Structures
1.
Amino acid sequence: MKNSKGFGKFEVLTVIVLLMIVGTFLLYGVIKQSPEEGMKTMKNDAVKFSSAVATNNDTFHNTNFVYLGEVIDEKLIKEIKNPIGRGNCSVSESFVEMINGTATTTLKCGEYLIDRATFAGGEKLKLYKVSDWEEKKSDKSNDQKTLYNCIENGKEKYPEYYEELYFVYRINQDYGTGHYYADTVEDCKVVAKTFYREKNEYQK
């Protein structure tokens, strides 16, 4: 059956679906911030993350190196949404580290990274763009890191390989242990692999 303008039900539904798809993309484009705008939001989120660690430092097992995942688990901060793309900021690659008495904060959100910022007065904040960690080194790889997992019942326990201290945190949580470094873990067979990625300062 067609309406007075000659459109059948199928055509009308098709137009509605297409309009919904276009509307979704337009809405996403409005919500998604540019890297320049997102950098400001990321900085504010990194400051909140750093502050949550500083004011509750005695809460953590390793007071000199605290991951975002630990702070979220302690319900001291909520998950941080990626202001530039989809999803949340990484709980295993975002951390606050004490270096010579100064708190430095790293926040990774999607493919963007604030790396060991101190938020000191007048500091020019740098934003980096990074690729995923890969086992195979490419011609563009300029950053590398040893990441960890453990084998349990012949399978990798975790869905991804973690930085050493976050790996240790997960082991302590799962096994009720109090390790500080991966080389003391005996709860499972520890596997360490070298991963590579591309890391470059974001250029406007």
2.
Amino acid sequence: MQNRDLILGLDTSNYTTSLAITDIGGEIILDARKLLTVKQGERGLRQSHALFQHMENLPALILEAMKTADKNRIAAVAASGRPRPVEGSYMPVFKAGVNYGKVMAASLGVPFFEFSHQEGHLEAVKHNSAFSETNDYLAYHLSGGTSELLKVTNGQINILGGSRDLSFGQVIDRIGVFLGMAFPCGREMDRTALSVRDKLNTNSTAGKESGSYSALPGQEKIDTTVNGNSQLLKKIPVSGLEINLSGMETQCRRELEKGADPERMVFALFRHISSCLAVLTERAVQESGCSRVLFTGGVTASSFIRNELETFFKSRSFEGRTIQIMFGDPALSSDNAVGISYLGGNSLWQSNR
């Protein structure tokens, strides 16, 4: 009989239907996703609408999986059943993946495992990284619905801080939609911020613009001139390890309504997000004594934010130790089922030892 060496994972977040298959060696056999449809101008979906779309999307993804891999090799099925691994964490959209997963597992005669969406994000980035054998680290989960700073010890996740109101992803999406971009807006907003940064670098090199652009921690004033008056975004306030982001959204909208250049405003927003994360990270390292930091979630797929932080922390240290930050493949930073598949494999292989 052929060895059962594959794990099928399902994740049904608020905006992506995901299915993945990985093998015992950690290779990704299939990473299939379908974005949920959001009408132009809208900033999200009701849970009932998202759940309906997941139920529509899953059959096609499952059929693709059965064509890609021999079903007789599937050793277990895993799914995300809630947003976070804490009591009371619940969103109806995850019922779609759990229900399909349980039926598939029963049909194949294999075990079913359930994890949280957040655990899947962490594992997707950690699994094949330099942190793969690390049991004690700090982590960010930065997405459209969550902006949390976490401490992970032997698989146990504790919240150290993060946003007390909006998430970074919500701010980015809301400003993007306000500018007429299609939801979700992260990729287009990131491209815009990178374009402005590159223009500033080019102009500075050519001597056409005073004050060159540089990476953190300079916090140079960012010119978003409106009718001859320089309107500057204020920094995101950081209190301990907590932040509030609704004020940043309000600032951006107000200045855009006054006539601020949209591209410069996007650049300013991404600069302030990067700076805020740099401050939070240094404080968290100092308070926890842990100098390894994992960045996960869709916001961390931003090339702009990644470059800013990697440059800033390249030479930073804590008590003589380098502060080691780790970003994953951008494709595994956004919502996916790869991490859930990995977690299912971890549980199965460990139970069989």
